[in-house]
């Protein structure tokens, strides 16, 4: 082999080689093997192995490093940095007190900083208290408190006896807790006796006194009776010609202010008739929507709704002489229609007789009004709701020397108590203590549709229908002492009570028992019992209508 132009030239061996040539070939292979296993090649192989090993170790180090970083990152993510504060009492460092702030890592994950987890802390001290600022303006006056209970004194004449030998008086005093204007036996707190002394002997007859001044003349006048009440009769008036209230004394004329008594005599049987032609001519002063009225036995006043054709349907009064007059034009631009929803109710309160009725003044909607029988004493009790507070679902009843009524508005059905001067939620009536009122307010949150269908008071408490969140539309009883009872008459629905009657030992109502309408008797302690299981005549079908016309009446021991 020799070199030619940089290329190696190799002789081509003949197809058949001699033994000498074979030996030459073996020698060549041995030579090449010797060169491959030479020291130089071994060094090269070792270097290559070292380089490959280093490269492999580098790759392994990178992989291992990334794994460690991932673990560190996971550990860092699992550990949370926390900040805790603690109050600090006043000391040398913080004269006004303050707080300690701790910073650290929550290694154990318990949501708290242990002592060995706190890495830094600092103190934050309160500043010194500043000087008092100027006095603020006076606040608005609060609402007037409820009227206190009246104190009463009873004087009773004593006949001569053990207590007072010669007779005298017994003086009893106490607080009128039940507002009935009577000092009941349980309300008496103190009792004292003032005894008369023994009668002295008769003294000597005194001298004749001087003649008195001339007295006033007694006068009697006679007038014809009102023909609307008595076609043939007279009215006799008795009085003294003393010039009372600006009249001329001793003028021989019996003026109105000088009349002391009157006597009405009718020569024919009294009969019903017109008290006056309110709507002059053939017009009707009353109609199906303007015909409410009520009479007060104590004030001898009769209030009613009527129209004279000019003022619309308004509030009128009939005086003791049976002469009608317009009490108040409540809605000057239209019809107030007094009593359209609730009627007109005369109620005896601790301030005298008051008439309660609903009316619309054209500004505040239909609200509850009160009247003492005078124009100045006829007022709206308040704007209870935006728009009409009184609608066809509203109810009213007399209770506790006042009236209880319901309103209906954006806040649902609400129940109120009023005596014409004080108006408040029934749950905060003035005779309830603050504790009782608070309990009632909490219980009332589960009630709605207050008084819907039935509202009636008696001497023991207030009976009313209401919808309980769990029991449905059922009967309720609120005692005078503030105890509230629920009667779940129909456990699987609404009993929808109606038509109530107060009796000596409870209350009778018409209600649904799940199959029809029946009578039930309610006890005042929350118990009840069904009184009837009536069915339609000749069938086993329970009746579905009970006492719709004249309600439930008691005749002796019988319910009708």
State the main characteristics.
560 residues; mainly beta; 5-stranded antiparallel beta sheet; 4-stranded antiparallel beta sheet
List the helices and strands and how they pair.
Blueprint: E1 2-4, E2 7-9, H1 19-36, H2 39-78, E3 80-88, E4 98-106, E5 118-125, E6 151-158, E7 168-175, E8 188-195, E9 218-224, E10 233-240, E11 259-266, E12 293-296, E13 301-307, E14 313-318, E15 324-328, E16 344-349, E17 352-360, E18 366-371, E19 379-380, E20 396-398, E21 403-409, E22 412-418, E23 423-425, H3 434-444, E24 447-448, E25 455-457, E26 461-468, E27 472-479, E28 484-487, E29 498-503, E30 506-512, E31 517-522, E32 528-530, E33 554-555, E34 558-559
Antiparallel strand pairs: 1-2, 3-4, 4-5, 6-7, 7-8, 9-10, 10-11, 12-13, 13-14, 14-15, 16-17, 17-18, 18-19, 20-21, 21-22, 22-23, 24-26, 25-26, 26-27, 27-28, 29-30, 30-31, 31-32, 33-34
